[in-house]
Amino acid sequence: MCVSKCPSRLVEVNHASSLAGLPHGFLGRTGGVSTGDVAGLNVGLGSGDDPTLIARNRALAADAVLPGAKLTTVYQVHSGDCVVAGDWSDAERPHADALVTDRPGVLLGILTADCAPVLFADREAGVVGAAHAGWKGAIGGVTDATIAAMERLGARRDQIVAAVGPCIAQASYEVDEGFRDRFVADHIANAEFFEAGRAGHHQFDLEAYVVARLRAAGIAWAQGIGLDTYALEDRFYSYRRATHRAEPAYGRQISLVALG
What is the pTM of this model? Predict the structure, then answer.
């Protein structure tokens, strides 16, 4: 993983070695024009922020990865659904949690604030994808749906590489017994992604779980970049941190990938 800066606004762009050579980046809150509780590069259309500032931040984010590209996002609902990127407006975004494309110049974007953003590519086939993997989407198979959608566009899973970007880390992600039981009921091996915490609670490793699902799907390479959105307050937005502090709003960061 490496970090670069967009000189005009010092937008932080975190890169993954598995996606080297492709326009991509896991962005945080650094840079941007929003103020207050969502200060920085807030791109969340549903965050309650000034729409003018959000639009400016989205443009800054896109320009930091692929200047002039069309940014395409979806209306995320914590599902396992993936769609092929279309020419819809922001107001017409389909309800889904992943999108794919084989069209150069289309910049796919996924918004997060603790959930795991996952970027995919099959360089040889010329297909990329992006997925929002919160715990519901992750156990619901959103990464598997993305791989399948890429295959329908001509990708081969043994050529697909993927990276899991900044998300809440195990040390910051306390869950109850019911949460753990749901994952273990899905597959007994999922117990390995939980460590014992205070009485009746566990610490869940979302990044490791998502990486394991990607590897189990048989793709060529899957990696996590190991950045904790909850702990790195100056760099990333976090829904759970904002909730713990009873803050009235929280921002969203964006992760982007495209064919050059």
Answer: 0.96
